[in-house]
Design brief:
The protein has 9 helices and 8 strands. The protein has 220 residues and is α/β, with parallel strands linked by helices. It has a 5-stranded parallel sheet with strand order 2-6-1-7-8. A 3-stranded antiparallel sheet has the order 3-4-5, with helices on one face. The longest helix has 19 residues.
């Protein structure tokens, strides 16, 4: 079973999905991390299209959720922290817009959820990757609020950046994600809209947890 949370960058979907997974003891799938590892491969291939796609197909990418953290391994090396750096964030929307990359990442995710109960976050999960998901959410928040959240995350990891730089990065990603030709960011017709600007983190986790618990009980 798969539950999906879509929304723009910094809306709180990843942290919320992780918290729900931890609270309900289910699996968490971070689609953004998978696009970030593809972006890391792209940057390491010096932005060369042909060598990038070859490297992507030949890469061994694995992932797991443990102790509240989504771990990603690239060729058996843990890159979970490296993929969160700003130079990766600045390029991820460009890489994620490539149809070949989307097909590759979507295949990884669909294979991962063949068994068990998962909650996943992304931008097009409810519309393109898992259109038949039994429960869908779409999270939004004010741009400045999203920038403050992302800046706090980066500062906690020792990343040197500014509010304006982070805000511009998110604003640019919003535009690219919503206007790309392949699977643009948009709310699925059957998704529950969650505006996190006026909610505490505990409020949004509790609300989504209750919906998921009801679904699990229904399917038991």
């Amino acid at each position: 079973m798969i539950v999906v949370i879509d929304g723009p960058a910094g809306s709180g979907k990843s942290s919320t999905a992780r918290a729900v997974a931890e609270r309900l003891k289910i699996q968490f799938l971070d689609s953004g991390a998978l696009y970030r590892v593809a972006t890391l491969i792209y940057l390491n291939s010096q932005n060369n299209g042909d060598s990038f796609f070859d490297a992507l197909k030949e890469s061994d990418i694995s992932f797991y959720f443990k102790e509240k953290k989504f771990h990603v391994l690239l060729n058996h090396s843990d890159v979970s922290d490296e993929i969160r750096a700003m130079h990766v964030a600045n390029a991820v929307s460009t890489v994620a817009a490539m149809p070949e990359v989307r097909a590759f990442v979507n295949a990884l995710m669909r294979q991962a959820v063949q068994s068990g109960i998962y909650i996943a976050d992304g931008r097009d999960l409810g519309t393109a990757v898992f259109p038949d998901a039994e429960l869908k959410f779409f999270m939004i928040a004010d741009l400045d609020e999203r920038a403050r959240r992302r800046l706090s995350e980066l500062e906690a990891k020792g990343e040197q950046t500014t509010f304006d730089e982070v805000r511009k990065n998110i604003e640019d990603r919003d535009l690219k994600d919503s206007s790309r030709a392949s699977d643009p960011l948009k709310q699925a017709d059957d998704a529950i809209l969650v505006n996190t600007s006026g909610l505490t983190f505990e409020d949004q986790v509790q609300m989504i947890s209750e919906h998921v618990q009801q679904l699990i009980a229904k399917n038991a």
